[in-house]
Design brief:
CATH architecture: 2-Layer Sandwich
Shape: globular
Structural class: alpha+beta
Number of domains: 1
Largest sheet: 4 strands, antiparallel
Strand order of the largest sheet: 2-3-1-4
CATH class: Alpha Beta
Radius of gyration: 13 Å
Order of helices and strands: EHHEEHHE
Length: 95
């Protein structure tokens, strides 16, 4: 089976609340065996809207990536960041 990825482009508007959200995502990410591939770092937007931060998480399968996003553990953490960031998240199946 192909791996699954979350690709998130994020502008943080409330660092304190966003930090709390980030600290609460651990149980969901651990449950679905997520691995951090990219968390911030230098970047250059060459097309499209620029965001301050890029995050890529790898999951064993696409189904794990989708299940993690919709899990009660992640949805509980997600509520904390509402209003603390502007973001796009795409779940992608890898090759």
């Amino acid at each position: 089976m192909a791996a699954g990825y979350w690709v998130a482009m994020v502008d943080v508007t409330d660092p304190e609340r966003y930090g709390e959200y980030a600290s609460k995502t651990g149980p969901a990410l651990e449950k679905y065996n997520a691995k951090v591939v990219i968390r911030g770092g230098r970047s250059e937007t060459v097309e499209g809207q620029e965001f301050g931060k890029t995050v890529v998480l790898e999951f064993p399968t696409y189904e794990d990536a989708v299940a993690c996003y919709h899990s009660p553990e992640y949805q509980s953490a997600k509520k904390i960041q509402e209003g603390a960031s502007v973001r796009n998240i795409v779940i992608v199946e890898g090759e």
